[in-house]
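Exercise: predict the fold of this chain.
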Amino acid sequence: MPRPCAFKPHSQNPLWGVVLVWLSSPARLAPPARLAPPARLAPPALPAPPALPALLRPGGRQLERMTQRNPKQKIISQFHSLAAEGDVSKLTAILSHSPDLLNKTSENGWTALMYGARNGHPDVVQLLLEKGCDKSIVNKSRQTALDIATFWGYKHVVNLLANTKGRETPRFLPKKAEEWENYFSKTLLDRKSEKRTNSSWLLAKQSHPATIYILFSDLSPLVTLGGNNDSSQQPEVKLCQLSHADVKDYLTQPDKIILVFLGVELEMKKKALNPTHGETLTEEEDEVAWFALGIDHVSAEQFKKRHEDCYFLHPPMPALLQLKEKEAGVVAQARSVLAWHSRYSFCPTCGSATKIEEGGYKRQCLKEDCPSLIGVHNTCYPRVDPVVIMQVLHPDGNQCLLGRQKRFPPGMFTCLAGFIEPGETIEDAVRREVEEESGVKVGHVQYISCQPWPMPSSLMIGCLAVAISTEIKVDKNEIEDARWFTREQVVDVLTKGNQQMFFVPPSRAIAHQLIKHWIRMNSNL
């Protein structure tokens, strides 16, 4: 490559020096030919830089006229030329005066980062990334800088682009996500956690005539069908709200049951028990407590014979999605805690038997010298497993990545998801899981919303994630398939019921809400 000649600027504007340097050297600004898909073409050796178009050759009058007509585009061209040549010092100087050039695109949609990636300049790429450039921008050939570097085989540049976390929010994402409540997250109870250690208060509430019990067998809640007069709709599924009189025989057998205090109703009411003879009720006396009661299979069968209008709701999915939203929140809380009890009958530390404490929110080892009795240990309390679930967006913002597992119904695609590992952030878990399952690399990650998922005790952490590469390489050990779907295809499924090609989970799953959130960002859906 000919070395640029040194010219003194004709004015104090630092960009004039750049213009003169560029005029004395071969330019690399010709729009590159559309690249074939990487899978079809092995990365060849880097060819000679493309010739400068005749209109822009140094010394031509047409160049002068063009510069006068569009001086801003001319400056952008000089900036891109320096990136293509790998001139870090001049790039640094220009950015100190004109930082707005960082993400400017040429007529073919290329940025300085793309030119640096195309020509294998890791120092240029590093500089631009440190300055906060947007690596999710796509050119007119629908390529990101990472796609370009991957195609041409610049591994060091690929590593820089793939491992750098997104600093800037992509243009098509809202700066602040709207908050909403998901199914299983609404509840009608105040958990009253401060009452869990008050054994006398709990005992009094257990025998109170206004107290409500919900019964479980094998983690399935006891329900009944509501009175829906509209024959065109399915009957409403409701929890069977039992009284102390209905369950008192079970409460006398503490070794055969699991009892969990769930909280008190947010709206204080007395359930038709009004004060008489001038009696004044305190606030605590007026609170209606709820308990979850887990019984064995034999007891459950006997109970059903006595209450033929009730049944245990199973299998859990999709049956639990039939409940009213606030009752679903109560079931999510109860089912998760009961599932923990079913797995921790013995101490995880020493293997000894344990007993239930704190209203069902703690198990204490019965061995006197067990280390778990000293300090606070997570093995003694109900656990929650954090899971990231992400709507992965194409760098252009107009496509989303959805996948499917073999166990899914035919045609169903959903958001990718996976458990967070120890010592891992939400953002890093999103990036790792997406790449493991689909081979797509992710940059910017934005938290949106979360959903308790009582199967048995997960917290689904919903995010939007913007891809910085687009090629899909599915790991068949993780998922069966993954595809990019256009916004139009997804809208057809959500609004028109066109499910011939694919369909998504029901509206009460957070995956559905994440997909709909993406569509709503730029529409009135």
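Check your answer against the key: The longest strand covers residues 442-453.
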